[in-house]
Design brief:
By secondary structure, the protein is an alpha+beta fold. It has one domain. Helix content is about 35%, strand content about 10%. The two termini are about 25 Å apart.
């Protein structure tokens, strides 16, 4: 369950910040996305996340 401050993007305690490629996402998503990105690269695609988390300031 998420707190009100997590839901509104005022805290990052519920997401993981990945460095390369740079994105923030729920921990359950990161490994699967990176595996899918690697497989896509083998097929000639550059799979990029454009929007995964927006903090309260943006």
């Amino acid at each position: 369950m998420f707190s009100n401050i997590e839901i509104t993007g005022q805290m990052l305690t519920h997401v993981v910040q990945n460095i390369k490629p740079s994105f923030a996402a729920h921990p359950e998503v990161v490994e699967t996305y990176l595996d899918m990105r690697s497989e896509a690269a083998l097929a000639g695609f550059d799979l990029v996340i454009f929007s995964s988390f927006r903090d309260f300031k943006t």
